[in-house]
Amino acid sequence: MAYRVRTVDVFTQRQLAGNQLAVVLDADELSAEVMQAIAREMNLAETTFVMTPQQDGAAARIRIFTPSTELPFAGHPTIGTAWVIRDEGLIPAGAESLVLEEGIGPVPVRVDAQADPAVLWMTHPEVSFGAVFEDRTALVQALGLAPSDLAEGIPMQVASTGNPFLFVALREPQAVDAAQCDAAALRRAFAGHDAEAVFIFAPAGPGRLYSRMFAPLTLGIWEDPATGSASGPLGAFAVRYGLIARAAEVSIVSEQGTRMGRQSFVHIRLIYADLADDPNRIEVGGSVVPVMTAELAVTDDPDSTITS
Questions:
Q1: How confident is the model over 117-142, as pLDDT tens digits?
Q2: Nearest alpha-carbon partner for 159 in 221, 236, 249
């Protein structure tokens, strides 16, 4: 069968930057096994599959796959898929919001059409903070850094709004660029902890962070150009530990992917009611640009054997 596929770049205003995404449309007939095989074939950070919604009011149900596993939730696939659904005319013209069904439940997305290009904002679930990694030396070594590169007084801690990330604050952007992730050492450092990836960052000016994300262990992503699902908890983490000033409304821009040649800008918006410890609302937004439209022909059996 043939399936229409769109590829887009997310968290960027120019093509061939940001984070790549493939979106397979009308995917109701595809099995999970075939979806995973297609994601391996695409070999991008994520591939999404758009299906008929099961909940009233939702624009679509989507499934998200890396080349090695399915994710219940992810940022740039949410924003990129919402953009494609809007561009394909699958929601009413002029609609300023839509809801996507994902593995964690409904994910609202709003559209700021006044921006040029438009900015799509996804609402994150509530943030939670988890374990603090006490063995800082093991993490520093796994990242190819020195203890002096760490931001003073900031814990290495897991935070999540759906996917758990270990956040490591560094002193300056130069240290972020200098990091070299050792997957075997990272596996040893992660032993016994619930985290899928390590997210390193440093302050880069008022309201700005400079970031990189490594996920070679469970997600099959060596380095991600832009990580929307991590950027929400990143903002909450940075405010919690005083790296970004707390206010009733906080706006942050996280630059990511520059070191790997795919510069991305992830916008983070945090709302604190009565200056509470953690934000009452988290939004992550960015622009999307189209790259390619194609037709994908697949069999119904990704494990079929070819003999000669």
A1: 999 999 999 999 999 999 999 999 99
A2: 236
| Domain harbouring 134, CATH code | 3.10.310.10
Same domain flag for 99 and 134: no
**Ramachandran angles phi, psi of 150, nearest 5°:** -75, 145
Instruction: Answer yes or no: 46 catalytic.
Output: yes
Q: At residue 262, what are phi and psi to the nearest 5 degrees?
A: -130, 70
Model confidence over 266-282: pLDDT tens digits?
Answer: 999 999 998 778 999 99
Averaged pLDDT for residues 243-256: 97
As a whole number of angstroms, the distance between CA 261 and CA 26 comes to: 32
Which residue range is the domain that position 85 belongs to?
A: 2-113+289-297
Choose the catalytic residue: 29, 46, 88, 152: 46
Q: Do 5 and 293 touch, CB atoms closer than 8 A?
A: yes
Structural domain tally of the chain? 2
Would you place residue 220 in the very low, low, confident or very high pLDDT band (cuts 50, 70, 90)? confident
Which residues, including other chains, have CB under 8 Å from residue 22's CB and lie 6 or more apart? 5, 6, 7, 42, 44, 46, 47, 48
Same domain, 253 and 274: yes
Query: What's the confidence (pLDDT) of residue 307?
Result: 39
